[in-house]
Amino acid sequence: MDASDYCGAPKNPKGKYGATIICFILGIGSLVSWNSMLTIGDYYYTLFPKYHPARVLTLVYQPFAIGTMIILAYYESKINTRKRNLAGFTLFFFSTFFVLVVDLATSGKGGIGPYIGICVLAACFGVADALVEGGMVGDLCFMCPEFIQSYLAGLAASGALISFLRMLTKAAFEKSSHGLRKGAILFLAISSFIELVCIFLYAIYFTKLPIVKYYRSKAALEGSKTVAADLAAAGISTNTKDQGGYDDKQQERLSNKQLFHENLDYAVDLFFIYAVTLSIFPGFLYENTGTHRLGTWYAVVLIAMYNIVDLISRYIPLVPCLKLESRKALLIAVFSRFLLIPAFYFTAKYADQGWMILLTSFLGLTNGYLTVCVLTVAPRGYKGPEQNALGNLLVLCLLSGICAGAVLDWLWIIGNGTF
């Protein structure tokens, strides 16, 4: 079947519910491995107490994510999205598996050797993140908004799921010997399995859903070359200039520079959303919140509250009256979050753990809500290839914000690392 024939199918193709669920699972797979590394931070702090693992691993991860994303965003229109996403999920699977291997091979011992190995694997996570997150967001930007919202919810769900499991394993293994290590091994095994599931879901099921084939066929007719392999896997051919049905005028598109200029405010939104969040999460929560009644549970509870509220907030924009769509209002909301930095400083210095839990929850609430608002509103009004390119550019800004936040996070430990 040809793409133009499939695009002439009924305007409400089947499979929307199934696609939404798969997008959610793929979202989980896009961050579950990295969230596992962050959530077992308390274990890594026992192995590498002098190396600031929560901060260092994040700082190692981000340059590779951004460097890869810059290349992918520049060549986005020529990259095979199917190969890109499958390569990303495969790299996630093997990197997570080898983190587990490193721990088993060293019998859970610390030292500079295992630490360097984990840092190398953190860099691999960064490459995989750029492959998958940019590829998926770009792909979903020219589909219905519910898909990208579900995918973004899946990203948050990965953190909530891992935090929930972390609390269960901490409670189950707290009094047993090597309890932290047992919990970490369980995390990594679960994460490896989820990545394997994502490979099969994307390669076999997602591509063949009628609604996905419809949107990709529509994008192909508008000039997108990135969907050709996915359409071919679904049994749909695309036209080239040497074949009939190819309209050069219809397939003209804005350049990346033009798209970036038109959406500069959205790019700034995403950059500063994540710059503020990562300047606090997770390093500050692990190292700068002091000692409280919750003891070793304190950081685990803070991370869990952030992840759970971040997940819940990503469903708020589904209610039309609660969705923030004004570009000016989004900018104001994003820049207002800078007040969270002094708020965390004074809360950690003077307030009790209850206030810190509340403030961390608010950090997650604003992070998830604003992310979904920006990424579901920005692609409106563009053609398929332009939406794909814009999705990649916005993910690049998001990752740049994460990197900036990871660097700024070190400012909290100037001096002795304590208040």
From TrEMBL:
<feature type="transmembrane region" description="Helical">
    <location>
        <begin position="329"/>
        <end position="348"/>
    </location>
</feature>
<keyword id="KW-0813">Transport</keyword>
<keyword id="KW-0472">Membrane</keyword>
<feature type="transmembrane region" description="Helical">
    <location>
        <begin position="144"/>
        <end position="165"/>
    </location>
</feature>
<dbReference type="GO" id="GO:0005886">
    <property type="term" value="C:plasma membrane"/>
</dbReference>
<feature type="transmembrane region" description="Helical">
    <location>
        <begin position="390"/>
        <end position="413"/>
    </location>
</feature>
<feature type="transmembrane region" description="Helical">
    <location>
        <begin position="17"/>
        <end position="34"/>
    </location>
</feature>
<dbReference type="GO" id="GO:0005337">
    <property type="term" value="F:nucleoside transmembrane transporter activity"/>
</dbReference>
<feature type="transmembrane region" description="Helical">
    <location>
        <begin position="354"/>
        <end position="378"/>
    </location>
</feature>
<feature type="transmembrane region" description="Helical">
    <location>
        <begin position="54"/>
        <end position="74"/>
    </location>
</feature>
<feature type="transmembrane region" description="Helical">
    <location>
        <begin position="185"/>
        <end position="206"/>
    </location>
</feature>
<comment type="similarity">
    <text>Belongs to the SLC29A/ENT transporter (TC 2.A.57) family.</text>
</comment>
<protein>
    <submittedName>
        <fullName>Equilibrative nucleotide transporter 3</fullName>
    </submittedName>
</protein>
<feature type="transmembrane region" description="Helical">
    <location>
        <begin position="86"/>
        <end position="106"/>
    </location>
</feature>
<keyword id="KW-1133">Transmembrane helix</keyword>
<keyword id="KW-0812">Transmembrane</keyword>
<dbReference type="Pfam" id="PF01733">
    <property type="entry name" value="Nucleoside_tran"/>
</dbReference>
<feature type="transmembrane region" description="Helical">
    <location>
        <begin position="266"/>
        <end position="285"/>
    </location>
</feature>
<dbReference type="InterPro" id="IPR002259">
    <property type="entry name" value="Eqnu_transpt"/>
</dbReference>
<dbReference type="InterPro" id="IPR036259">
    <property type="entry name" value="MFS_trans_sf"/>
</dbReference>
<feature type="transmembrane region" description="Helical">
    <location>
        <begin position="297"/>
        <end position="317"/>
    </location>
</feature>
<feature type="transmembrane region" description="Helical">
    <location>
        <begin position="112"/>
        <end position="132"/>
    </location>
</feature>
